[in-house]
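Quick bug: LacI family DNA-binding transcriptional regulator output formatted oddly.
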Amino acid sequence: MTDDPKPATRKNVAELSGVSGAVVSYVVNGGPRPVSAQTRERVLAAMQELNYRPNAAARALRLRRTNAIGLILPDISNPYFGEFAKAIEDAAFDRGFALILGNSSNDPDREAAQLDSFIDRQVDGLLVISVRRHAELSIVRDAQIPLVVIDQPEKGVDLPTVVIDNYRGARAAVEHLRSHGHRRIGLIGGPPLLPGSRARQAGWRDALNEIGDGQGVQAVAPFTRLGGLEAGLQLLSGPDRPSALFVSSDIQSIGVLRACAQLDLRVPDEVALISFDGTQAAEFTAPPLTVIHQPVDLIATAALDMLLAPTAQHKVVPYTLIPRASCGC
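Here's what came back:
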């Protein structure tokens, strides 16, 4: 039985390519001294022949870069956050960065622990959809790590943010339902501590007030299927149920569809629905959901650009209303 061969070292690469160990280091690290194109090709060929892999941890310490970006999400089981994570990973890969994912499970303490972990890893930047107040994210900036928050900005907190226009998107949803003749338009909102949830609620409320003759009832629920089911049963079980609902997320809307089935209510004939997010899952419900679509690829690109080359404190990306059968279109 033979021992496994030892991994190649920088010295081995230097000997095979006929250069010094310092020159190998310059090629691997991109400096600090220039290397001729011919010498560089010779070193790279030796690295490939020996299957030499630089020590990433040691290189990160030398360069003070890890080529890694952290992303903390509230709930990776939510289809929207899953699609968003993929969009961030694709955009990061195109820029030469790896993505490290943290799932806070909507737990503020777990999110705080993950922030500490990413700071200890010295990631090159951090993207967060937070379940805490944004002021509590200042620990990241204190550690001199670039940070972008994917959410509505909080008053009095100076953090760069990228967000969909939650307020106007909610207004557009109500106005679209009103165009179908609905007056009693209910809301299933998200957790009220989240700025995005509050903005969607404000857009729904202001649109109803502007209509003048509109009426609305609301329920607050977690961004889960069960939350949507329970809120749907609450709003749709009584004799004065709304004829239409604006639901703050696709995952809640799936629960609302279940509630409608349990109550023998036909969608959209007896209850019309519009959802916020526009995930792929919304296309495959029965009936397919009309949505306020969040362009995850555009949000991901904007967030990474702001993280890696800060140009703005706050960016709002546009929404799109996609009509399908759940509203009666």
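Actually, after a second look the formatting is fine. The CA atoms of residues 90 and 218 lie 37 Å apart. Closing.
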